[in-house]
Specification:
Blueprint (H helix, E strand, L loop, with lengths): L1 E12 L6 H7 L1 E18 L6 E4 L3 E4 L8 H9 L6 E7 L9 H16 L6 H15 L7 H8 L2 E6 L5 E5 L4 H10 E5 L6 H14 L4 H21 L3 H15 L9 H13 L2 E6 L7 E6 L3 H10 L15 E5 H10 L2
Parallel strand pairs: 3-5
Antiparallel strand pairs: 1-2, 1-11, 2-5, 2-6, 3-4, 6-7, 8-10, 9-10
Helix pairs in contact: 2-3, 2-4, 3-4, 3-5, 4-5, 8-9
């Protein structure tokens, strides 16, 4: 039995510039934080049954991987040439379709488990690129490269994406006290709205490819610029400036699709800025729902009470430094015991 886990992520700046339609023209830059909320993969061989079993929100039991409905699991099994007698179960700390990169976290955790199972290398770059290959090239999804890389590497991390798709990973270091200050001010609330990012990203991708100088492309250029500014302010520990830049970032993000903003949430956001000291905020991920980040350096309890009254509980979180990891390999432990008999 093998157990792996991969963290969810919160995008801090530059989101959307990691799609090929943008970085192939202008290069991309994204800034993310991996958080201590995870998706877990439990993998074990089926000793007596030849079927492939995949358990998630549904249960699948098939004789051949071509029969699987779960496309990510299907493609991951193809990469590792596994076509029988395996059972894979996934469990997540947070809901799917909520803007925290759950699909890519699932995939990096699964690919790591399969790599361990087949005794192949599972270092972060290899796993991240395999996940990108599956989601972008094989499944043709309108998705970028940030989710796979932040899930694989963890940490407070920037990604520079070259025109050829090469990704340079940079871990940002802050003191523990500074991290606590920053994350304590960076409130995250669950809106209760689940949505598919694909619709929003498909529109963004199409408009970016259609013509140079479009509103979407110009907004993404500004988002990249703001992402770089956010990075500079955070490494200087000017956290309040991050909050102000976050508001600007959100205004440009809303230009990417009319599905990004939610009127009810926009109304609450404006009220938090007027009455509760919020300097800036945004819906995390593609938008349309999921989790809302609000940066606030005062009135924390009042803000939390206000949001809770409106049905949006606060997420308690901290940074994950490890990225995708093997939690347990009981098969290896069993073999070790045999070797020492």
């Amino acid at each position: 039995m093998i157990i792996t886990r991969a963290p969810f992520r919160i995008s801090l700046g530059g989101g959307g510039t990691d799609l090929p339609s943008f970085y192939e023209k202008h290069e991309g830059f994204v800034f993310n934080i991996a958080i201590d909320k995870y998706i877990y993969i439990h993998l074990k061989p089926s000793i007596l049954e030849p079927e492939i079993k995949i358990k998630y929100s549904k249960n699948e039991c098939v004789n051949n991987i071509s029969e699987l409905s779960h496309t990510r699991a299907k493609e991951a099994l193809k990469i590792y040439n596994i076509n029988k007698a395996i059972e894979i179960t996934s469990i997540a700390d947070l809901p799917s379709s909520s803007g925290l990169g759950s699909s890519s976290s699932y995939l990096t955790a699964l690919l790591t488990a399969l790599a361990v199972y087949t005794r192949k290398p599972c270092y972060p770059h290899r796993i991240a690129e395999q996940a990108c290959q599956i989601e972008i090239e094989r499944l043709k999804e309108p998705i970028g490269k940030q989710d796979q890389y932040i899930a694989a590497y963890g940490g407070l991390t920037t990604l520079d994406i070259k025109k050829d798709g090469e990704v340079k990973v940079n871990k940002v270091k802050l003191s523990v006290n500074s991290l606590h200050t920053f994350l304590g001010n960076a409130h995250v609330y669950y809106t209760g709205l689940q949505r598919s990012a694909s619709d929003i990203l498909e529109e963004q991708d199409r408009k970016t490819r259609e013509s140079d100088g479009s509103e979407v492309e110009n907004s993404l250029l500004k988002i990249k610029e703001l992402g770089l500014e956010i990075y500079e302010e955070i490494i200087k520990e000017n956290f309040d400036n991050f909050g102000l830049l976050l508001d600007k970032h959100w205004q440009f993000k809303k230009n990417l699709s009319d599905k990004v903003a939610v009127p009810e949430i926009e109304k609450l956001y404006e009220e938090t800025k007027r009455s509760y000291g919020v300097l800036g905020g945004k819906l995390i991920g593609a938008g349309g729902g999921g989790f809302l980040m609000l940066y606030c350096n005062e009135k924390h309890r009042l803000l939390e009470k206000f949001m809770k009254f409106h049905g949006m509980p606060r997420l308690d979180y901290f940074i994950d430094f490890q990225g995708t990891k093997v939690v347990a390999d009981l098969r290896a432990s069993h073999e070790l015991n045999i070797n020492h008999l």
